[in-house]
Description:
single chain, mainly alpha
Amino acid sequence: MLRWTITFVIIAIIAGILGFGGIAGASAGIAKICFFIFLVLFVASLLKGLLSTK
Length: 54
């Protein structure tokens, strides 16, 4: 998931440099959504690992 976020951030940066505002904005938005999903899944798995009793 983090790899997708980095990919969309790179696409947004390249599109921003080349002047494609709409593509840059859309890619940045997708990158933000992917990052927050990754963050939620990371915290959930971290808590699951800490609370598991083995």
